[in-house]
Amino acid sequence: MVDPRGPRFAAAVTTVVLAVTIITGNPWLLLGQTVVFLVGAVAGIRNAPYGLVFRYLVRPRLGPPADLEDEAPPRFAQAVGAVFGVLGTVGLLAGPAALGYSAAALAFAAAFLNAAFGFCLGCQIYLVLRSATVKGART
Amino acid sequence: MTGVWVLLAALVAATGVGLLARARDGRFRVSRVRGGPRGAAARRGDQHGGGEREGRGDAGPAAVTGVGAVPGPDPGDHRPEAPGETAPGETARGGRGGLTAELAALGHVPGEVATLLQFSTAFCAPCRVVRRVLADVAAIVPGVRHVEVDAESHLELVRRLGVRRTPTVLVLDAEGVEARRASGAPPTRDAVLATLASLVESAPGDHRKGTDGDSVGLSGNA
Is 90 exceeded by the pLDDT of residue A89? Predict the structure, then answer.
């Protein structure tokens, strides 16, 4: 269970980092963000860098959360972010640049949607992916 | 310079998606595929014509014969023993008997008034909220049941019903036929109550009788 404002805060930071990445076209910045995504997916969002910032610097200044959320959805979203981060980093470093920009732009759009609207694109994609890839019909 | 344009495009696109989602998600819509109140009423006659419920008769014979339904009993129509193997296009959203067979496969029977069928996944943050809202409604409205389905382990059903996102909530009428649908975000409790009210109004008032059934619905989700 996590405070839902944590992932939202992380999404806001991610949005800014990815925006700077796209404007500057700096692959190392994107690589850094990708590592953050990976840590979030593997170790949990609370232990990822932005999660730690939220826990120790932001949350003490806020009131208690109205509701707690499951950790699995944002964690899955971090894994989706990591995939796009890797693609984008490869694209920016080795080309084609279009791959780098489009992957970074998609990751940015997803982070922005989460931060501004509370809409988890990665979570929404999950069922579509499962439904498209799993052939077995078990009802 | 490229980056600035890419960023602007992504920002505009994401804002568009976000605004659209905010406007549409979590709102109940009347289900399109033969799911309108009239279609549901006609099917009701079709399905149970000649059955023990024919005695209620208050749906009006015109509703039954108006669509050319055969009023006689037709045992070949529905085979509840094979819920997973119904022919494509047969049951799905609108078919005969609605989702009663599917509910039975999940170990449930339709609520006396309505069933709130929720599709969830493990990676669905709003599903928790939906669960609470629907369980709440099922507890306070007699005859309404809440059934939650793990979409991932029922992908066949998910595909057949065209469920693409979680949470998705189907409101099934008393016959188990899908009448309303909302997806993407948790509907508010008031929205669920309003939808149930509109469902009961649009039905020809045939599941109003028999107070014995009302207490059954309270047992809710087993």
Answer: yes
